[in-house]
Amino acid sequence: MATPTTSRRERPAKRALSREWIIAETIEIMRAEGLEKATMRRVAQALDTGPASLYVYIANTAALHSAVLDELLGTLSAANATEGDCNERLEALLRQYANILFAYPGLARSALLIRPTGANAVLLYDRVLGLLLEGGVAVDRAAWGVDLLLQYVTANAAEHSIPSPSDIDAPRDDDDMGILAQALRSADPATSPHIAAHVDAVLSGSPAERVTWAIQALIAGIAATPIPSHR
Question: What is any Pfam family matched here (predicted)?
Fold first, then answer.
């Protein structure tokens, strides 16, 4: 007896593919498996389609990761818009940005290679610029300062994020810092007199305290340093 077949008309309609769905599925894969697993092929598999179908919406894996970061930037809260002075609000905004990068290890590294240029990235750029201007920073210095601040936060997150599976043999951040501290404390006073004399100061402060200081130092430096004359 022949096995009855289901008519195509009786099958549930397949959900239409879209850029939004692709990005949402990529974020879920990142949460469960890590950024490195969020390839075009893996996402296509999750969406029950072929990789070629995704290229209609996303150019390549790098562009996919950039689009994901831009989507996540849309979650940045504007709740700090009226709390504290402009520098405090700027620091809070940059910390929110850093928290997104820390929540998805590897994403910061991707952002260093291909900067996100989507709508939410532009909004973040605008908010940082606006807070610098509100703080009295000259327009030309603020315009260059935005790039410096966002680069610092991205690079710091990339440096301190959890190693990817391909880096499994690399030292973890706490191990790496311990090795550095040991090396500095073992410095020969004859060849490295400044380190030997001030090693406690060099290694002082928690990571959070050092990040806060770095942001404040960058803001102060941006406000005080004129840009080169255009010739």
Answer: TetR_C_1
Please answer whether residues 99 and 76 qualify as being in contact, where contact means their C-beta atoms are separated by less than 8 angstroms.
no
Do residues 218 and 152 lie in contact, with contact meaning Cβ atoms separated by under 8 Å? yes
Contact yes or no for 35/83 (Cβ under 8 A): no
Domains in the chain and their CATH numbers?
16-58 (1.10.10.60), 76-231 (1.10.357.10)
pTM to 2 decimal places: 0.79
Cβ atoms 55, 63 nearer than 8 A = no
Tally of residues, the chain? 231
- Rounded Cα–Cα distance for residues 229 and 231 (Å): 6
For residue range 168-181, what is the model confidence (pLDDT) as tens digits? 444 455 556 688 89
Question: Letter for the amino acid at 129?
Answer: L
**Among 38, 88, 85, 93, residue whose Cα is nearest residue 63:** 38
Q: Compute how many other C-beta atoms are within 10 angstroms of the C-beta atom of residue 148.
A: 14
Enter the tokens of residue 224: 């005080």
pLDDT tens digits, one per residue of 99-142: 999 888 788 888 888 778 889 999 999 999 999 999 999 999 99
Q: CA 188, CA 181: separation in Å to the nearest integer?
A: 14
